Amino acid sequence: DAFEVAYKVRDFEQVHQIVQKNVFLRLHPLYCDLFQNSWKETLPKLIDLLAKGDHRGAKKVITPYLEEEKYQQIYTTLAKQRQDIVIFYELIKGLNIKEAYLKVDHMPLLKHAYPYKILEKKWETIFLTAKKLIKTSASEQKRAHRLLEPFARVSDKKDLVLALKKQPEIFFDSEKEIENQNFKGYFKYIQRHAFLDKTPLHTKVELLGERYLERLEKAEYEWDLKRMKYFSEILQQFPKYKTKALLSITKIKVILRLGEALKKSHLPGVFDLMDQYHYIHTHDDVVKVRRSYLESTKQATEYALVGDGRGAYKLLKEYWDIKQCHAKVSSVMKLSFFNEMKKYYENKKVDWPKSIGRYLERFGEDDDIREIAKDVGLLDVVDNLKERYPHVGFYQTQKRVSLLSPKK
Predict the structure, then answer these.
(1) Of 372, 366, 408, which Cα lies nearest the Cα of 386?
(2) Stretch 207-235: mean pLDDT, rounded?
(3) Which conformational region is residue 181 in: left (phi greater than 0), alpha (psi within -120 to 50 degrees), or beta?
(4) Rounded to whole angstroms, how far apart are CA atoms 36 and 25?
(5) Which of 129, 130, 133, 165 is deepest in the core (most CB within 10 A)?
(6) How many CB atoms are located within 10 Å of the residue 270 CB?
(7) 8 Å CB contact between 390 and 362
(8) 115 with 88: CB under 8 angstroms?
């Protein structure tokens, strides 16, 4: 409990202390999550503490991770390059953009530092301003080029800067595709011009795709077919989400087929869909069908327990010929016959050889029939019928509500 409370309030140092006292907590799913998710929060904090010279604070923050070699290596690297971190912070403070980016090229871990967000925001503002100037008029191009100059030597910016200077129409045309909601056309530009995926616009498009995906997943959860169709048609245009979108369209078609099967009261078709597409088990109509089936089999079992095969059959008849229900139906009817035997074994009007023969045809000679037959004194009948009534199968024989046969 203490472990989970510490995790919920994101007190990872406390989590580590608790785990040190109980090593089995390392197997807890939340502890695995600690390394997968909390590191994203911890790394910027660690860099910030080193920049401020707070080695004790940095050590405290990193301690829970030091048993993992990759985190140990990162910490060692950051500690050795602490002076570079300090210089980077000073460059950001002095708005020395060009040198700050060159420092990031030299030390990629700085991309996780808090000030890097400031640097990227500055880049985005300058890039958008320069693009706007170029689009405005040819006379503004020199000014735009001067704004872009500090980024001309930055490794992940230089291709973008060069392209904007030489081929600005590519940027303008790709933006038109977004304005027209033609994401498919936009991503064709991305395929032809890889540098476009580093633009601020592309970041927004990616975020938009994520939002559309969230809305699609919500629509799927609620089985809102209209919204599923709308969002899946949009997401089909996103290469990243095309497979997911196509699956959603398949789900819509399956639900429509489900509706048709229910409309026609065609239960075998409904069960086939349930068997083939497990994700529809959350749909309200399927939940109702399953609940009705479970209630019917439960009540049928109660009839079988008192040897009332007719009562059991009335409840099971609509499921009798559904292959997914065969095992349950046959087991309930088998139970009914056993209890009929217990109820009527002293009845002289029952033709027991023929009755037990019907069982052997349907279920074969098994331990169950031998045990019941032994209890009611009919084991010798079973032994004498093995050859006369070979096992055929429950669904390969005549449908009967009772296997008891009266003497002629």
Answers:
(1) 366
(2) 96
(3) left
(4) 16
(5) 130
(6) 24
(7) no
(8) yes
Q: Could you tell me the pLDDT band of residue 97, with boundaries at 50, 70 and 90? A: confident
Distances (CA, A) of 81 to 51, 85, 97, 349, 361: 10, 7, 20, 98, 82
In terms of phi and psi (left: phi > 0; alpha: psi -120 to 50; beta: otherwise), the region of 274 is: alpha
- DSSP three-state, residue 350: strand
Over residues 201-220, the mean pLDDT reads 95
Write down the H helix ranges in 52-113: 55-62, 69-80, 82-93, 97-106
Helix axes 114-136, 158-166, angle to 10 degrees: 10
Supply the DSSP string of 36-64, one letter for each residue. Answer: IIIHHHHHHHHHHHHHTT-HHHHHHHHGG
| Mean pLDDT, residues 341-368 | 91
Share of the chain above pLDDT 90, in %: 69
Mean pLDDT score, 319-335? 95
Helices (H) then strands (E): counts for the chain = 23, 0
| Residue entry with tokens 């048993």 | 67
Q: What is the pTM of this model?
A: 0.72
For residue 274, CA distances in Å to 245, 254, 257, 263, 265 come to 21, 10, 11, 16, 15
d(CA 212, CA 242): 12
Give bridge partners of residue 313 from the DSSP assignment: none
Torsion angle, alpha carbons of 51, 57, 60, 63, to 10:
10
CA–CA gap between residue 207 and residue 242 (Å, rounded): 16
User: Which of 286, 277, 270, 283 lies closest to 221 in space, CA to CA?
Assistant: 283
**How far is residue 191's CA from residue 197's CA, in Å, rounded to a whole number?**
9
> pLDDT for 379-389, tens place per residue?
888 888 877 88
Asked if 373 and 356 touch (Cβ cutoff 8 Å), the reply is yes
Which pLDDT band holds residue 20 (cuts at 50, 70, 90)? low
| Contacts of residue 88, Cβ cutoff 8 Å, sequence gap at least 6 | 51, 100, 103, 104, 107, 110, 113, 115
Structure-block tokens of residue 370:
């031998």
